[in-house]
Design goal:
By secondary structure, the protein is mainly alpha-helical. The protein has helices spanning 8-23, 26-48, 68-94, 97-110, 112-122, 126-131, 147-155, 194-214, 219-227, 252-288, 291-296, 301-337, 340-349, 352-379, 383-403, 406-409, 414-421, 426-433, 440-470, 475-485; strands at residues 56-62, 137-139, 160-162, 165-167, 171-177, 181-186. It has two domains: 56-227, no CATH class; 249-485, no CATH class. The protein is built from 20 helices and six strands. The protein has a four-stranded mixed sheet with strand order 2-1-5-6, sandwiched between helices.
Length: 492
Amino acid sequence: MKMPALNLRRTYLIARRDYLGYVKTWGFWISFFLPFVIGAIVIAINLAGFSVSPTRYETILDQTGSHSAAILQSEADKQEELMAGILNGLGGTVLNEQDAEELEDIIDTQGIDEGKVYLETKMPGSTSRMKALDSKLVFIDPPSRDLEELKSYMRGDKMASFEGKDVKLNGVLHIYNDGELTADYWSPNVTDNPVRDLAKSYFRDVSVDNYLGSAGLDREGYEAARESRIKIEAFDPTKKATADGEGQKVGSKDRIPYLVAFALSMMLWMTVFSGAYMLLTSMLEEKMNKLLEMMLATTRFSEIILGKLLGVALLTLTAILPYIIMGIVGVIGAIIMGPSDVAQGLITAFSPKMIIFFTIFLVLGYIFYGSLFIALGALAESMQDAQTLTTPIMFVLMGAVFIVPIGLTTPDSPLLIFASWFPLSSPFAMLMRLPSDPPLWHLIASVALLAVTTLGVILLSGRIFRFGVLSGAGVKVATDWFKRKILRRKVT
C-alpha cells in the first residue's frame, strides 16, 4: 500500500496549533509550575522544622500506682531509639565512616542531645530539619485524680498546666483494678491514639514477662534468644561469584531495578493515557466546531493525523517535564549521597538497555493508542459518544496497568510474559521484565510485533478518520455497519 504524501509545513502548522492551543492558557502554566512550588514549600517546611502535627498533652491516671512510671519510661526508651535511628541514618548518608562511628559512640555514651550538637557541626542545619521528627507527645501530671473532672479538661471547659502555660488536655489513660487489671483510654480524638497503642504494647510486654517468670525465665534471656536466631541470607546463583562470597548475595541493589521499572511503567502508562485522551478531546472539539471541514480544504488526512500526534506528544512531554526534572535530580542525589548499595542499584536500573527500550515503547505506545483515539474522536458527535466508543480501550488500558505490579513479585509469571508479547500491553509489561534480563531477541521481537501492529492501527485509523469526517458518520453509523457486515443483520 502506497503511503500518502506529506507536506511537512502543513503538518508542522497543525502540530504547532495543537501545542500552542494548550500552552498559551494560564491553567497549563499553573499546573506546570505547581510541582516546583509544592516541592519548594515542602523543603522550606523541613528546613524551618515546622510540623503539621500539633503537640498533644496526655496524662495517665493510674489508680493502681504500679504502671504509670514504667509506661513513661517505655515511651522515653522508644523515642530514644527512634531518634538514634534517625541520627545514625543521617550520619550514614552525609558523613564519612569515621564520623558516623564517632556519632554513634556519642549517642550511646552521652545521649541524643549531644549527638544533635555533633551532627550540627558536621552538617549545619540538621537540627532544624530533625525538629519536625521529634516527638509531639507530652505527658503531664494529672490535673485531677477524678476521671469525671478530667473529662471536663478534655472537653476544653478547664485548662491544664504545663511549664507555666495553659494547655488543653488531649487524652487520659485510666488504669484501675476492678477485680482484674483494666486500662481505658479517653480522648476526643478518635482516629489517632498513640497513647492507647503505647499502653497496649506495654501491657503485652507485662504479660510476656509474667508468663516467662512463671517458668523461671526472664526478659533478658528471651531477647538474647531472639537475637541469636539464625540469620538467613538470600543469594542469586545467576550472579557472578566473587572470592569474598558477597557477589551473589541479594540486597537492595538487586531489588531497586524492579522498583525503577515499576515507576517507569506507570509513567509510561500515564503519558500514553493523558496524550491519547487529549487527542480525543481535541479531535472531538474540532469536529463539533466544524474546524475539520475548514482544515480539509487545504490539508490532507495524513497531515492532520501526523500533526496532531506530534503536537500533543510535545504537549504531553512539556506537561510532565517538571516531574522528569525532579525525578532526575532525585536519582542523581540518591546516587551521590545515598548508601553505596542504593547507588549501585540505581545505576544498574538506568542501564542503556532500559533507557533505549523505554524510549521505543513510549513512542510506539503513544502512536498506537493516539491513533486509535483520533479515529474514535472523528466518529464521535458528542462527549457521550466518545465515552461510549473509548470504553473498550479504557478497559484494555486498565487491564494493562493492573498487570504491571505482577512484575514486582513474580517477574517470571506466565501472565506477565504473555502481556509482554500482546501489543496492547507490551509497552508496559516488557519494561517490567527488563530487570530480569530477558533474551535480547525477546525485546526485539516484542518491539517488532508492536511496530507492525502500530502501522496497521495507523492505516485503519486513517480510513476511520476519513470515513467519520467526510460522511459525517457517528456512533450509529458505525454500529449499523458492524451489525450489517459482521453480524449479518438487517438494519432499518
